[in-house]
Design brief:
The complex is a heterotrimer of chains A (118), B (132) and C (250).
Chain A lengths: L5 H32 L10 H9 L1 H28 L6 H24 L3
Chain B lengths: L18 H31 L2 H12 L1 H24 L8 E2 L2 E2 L2 H25 L3
Antiparallel strand pairs in B: 1-2
Chain C lengths: L6 E8 L9 E8 L6 H12 L18 E4 L2 E4 L13 E4 L6 E3 L2 E2 L2 H9 L21 H5 L12 H5 L1 H5 L6 H11 L7 H9 L12 H5 L6 H18 L9
Parallel strand pairs in C: 1-5
Antiparallel strand pairs in C: 1-2, 3-4, 3-5, 6-7
Helix pairs in contact in C: 6-9
The chains are: A mainly alpha (118), B mainly alpha (132), C alpha+beta (250).
């Protein structure tokens, strides 16, 4: 029987799932509700100079990259299997769209974070 | 000839046949929201790399009523992801023993949810302390 | 305790390959007492109403695993499910889901039998053991590692519950993988490496998406979902660490 390569994608799925389970809700609240509305946190917390400085720091880059990349790989793995659940099978195209999409997002995030500089 | 003619029943709509499966599909569907949020952040990072004008455009979009409403819905979905993640977590772990007694699945789930609350509070506190 | 006149409707999905193009529902009115199992209801039908009704049963005490079927859409043992749960509305029974129907409530289980045999369901000693070495000794803690998974009665309710098996019967499935784990987790067994090839395959643990319904329906609390998903970790370890271990299959 052929060995499956699923462990790679499952590992990324697990890491992304845990990261999003622990930090997803508060990240959505802070970036999408609190700061835009000035609710509990000031509106200028995400101003350009502050966010640029955050993203230029190696820790800020690392955090943002981890969140974007791992959330995406988690979603890609789950969506691929959900497509199978609703009858969209025949693997290769679905795999390309899901995992290929995750790769594109990862590379775009990496490129932007590097373009931002140090 | 044996006269056997086995009949295979179709799987169409299988997940609508039982509430257990519906909850499973909802759990799996939270992945769409996790992906959506990652793309929102990606858009932000792309804008950030394009300079102040682009970044302020992203901020303005985040302040729009549509965005606020979508983020409230995403928040609900994220919370359900957190809950369903720790609900299934005990199934992925080998039997754990503390003081000779088997650790119950509910204990593992509760611990995970507690960790999620701690993580959320910690993140908020860190961000709040870094406010201008 | 006879309660004169009470009856309950049992609707059965009939299928007679020699005369039916497809399964068709047939209803029976069965005299009801509150201590009757669904199996007893079926036995009444066969004995008094319709001798052509076919169904499997044996022990009638939830240990042989023969009488599994879909009762109001849920996989259950008919000897362990009681008509009073469905009184007075009635109950619908059909053959175990995700298996082909051979006749009436009899499902074709050939695939399950083949899979059971494929996982080497027996102790494989680490090294040959002489009689004078005596029996294997095992602590209660060592027993606890696998005892739960040894409770499987091969009733296949978990296969009827598992949508992944229903969507693709190449999946080894919950019950068989639980049995595989039962042997791997037994301190007397040394056959783990031999069983890994199946575990690591797509048809092994990797078809499972942790729905968890298998463990919900198991009448013996085997928790096959746990057996399968624990082995995802083992399989991942095997995948990533294989280059460090000499002689491991690529």
């Amino acid at each position: 029987m052929k060995r499956s390569n699923a462990p790679v994608f499952w590992g990324l799925f697990g890491a992304g799932g845990m990261l999003s389970a622990l930090f997803g809700p508060m990240l959505v609240f802070i970036t999408g509700i609190a700061v835009p509305l000035g609710l509990l946190l000031p509106r200028d917390l995400m101003s350009y100079p502050r966010m640029l400085a955050f993203a230029q720091h190696w820790a800020g880059k690392g955090f943002v990259f981890a969140v974007i990349a791992l959330f995406t790989w988690h979603a890609a793995h789950r969506i691929f299997h959900s497509l199978h659940d609703v009858g969209i099978r025949g693997g290769t195209l679905a795999k390309l769209l899901c995992y290929g999409g995750a790769l594109v997002v990862t590379l775009l995030a990496l490129w932007s974070l590097l373009a931002i500089g140090f | 000839m044996s006269g056997r003619r086995p009949y295979m029943r179709p799987m169409n709509g299988w997940w609508r046949r039982d509430p257990f499966f519906v909850r499973y599909m909802i759990r799996e569907a939270t992945a769409l929201i996790v992906a959506a949020y990652a793309i929102v952040l990606l858009a932000g990072v792309l804008c950030l790399s394009q300079g102040e004008g682009a970044w302020n455009g992203w901020l303005a979009a985040m302040r729009s009523p549509v965005s606020i409403v979508l983020h409230v819905l995403m928040l609900v979905a994220m919370i359900y992801h957190t809950y369903s993640w720790f609900e299934i977590m005990p199934k992925t772990m080998p039997a754990m023993f503390v003081g000779g007694k088997r650790v119950a699945a509910a204990t593992i789930t509760m611990s995970g949810l507690a960790a999620a609350v701690v993580a959320a509070v910690a993140l908020f506190v860190v961000v709040w302390m870094l406010r201008p | 305790m006879a309660e004169a006149g009470k009856t309950i409707e049992i609707e059965v999905l009939r299928y007679r390959p020699e005369q039916d193009a497809a399964p068709v529902a047939q209803s029976y009115q069965v005299p009801f007492t509150d201590d009757m199992s669904v199996l007893q209801g079926l036995q009444y039908i066969k004995d008094h109403l319709d001798g052509t009704l076919s169904f499997r049963w044996s022990c009638r005490m939830a240990i042989c695993g023969s009488c599994g079927m879909m009762i109001d859409g849920k996989p259950k043992l008919s000897c362990k499910t009681f008509l009073r749960e469905f009184y007075p509305g009635g109950v619908r029974v059909e053959a175990l889901a995700h298996f082909p129907i051979e006749r009436d409530l009899v499902a074709g289980v050939d695939d399950f039998i083949v899979k059971l045999e494929s996982i080497k369901p027996y102790l494989i000693p680490r090294e040959p053991r002489r009689l004078d070495e005596g029996e294997y000794l095992q602590t209660p803690h060592e027993l606890e590692q696998y005892e739960q998974f040894s409770s499987c009665i091969n009733c296949m309710l978990c296969y009827a519950a598992c949508p992944q098996y229903g969507l693709d019967s190449k999946f080894t499935g919950p019950g068989v993988l639980a049995l595989l784990h039962r042997y791997n987790a037994d301190s007397r067994d040394g056959g783990r490496d031999e069983r890994m090839e199946l575990v690591n395959a797509e048809e092994g643990v990797w078809s499972c998406t942790a729905v968890g319904y298998c463990s919900e329906v198991c009448p013996k609390a085997v928790d096959p979902a746990n057996a399968v998903n624990q082995n995802k970790v083992n399989s991942a370890k095997d995948y990533f660490l294989r280059f460090l271990r000499p002689g491991t299959k690529p």
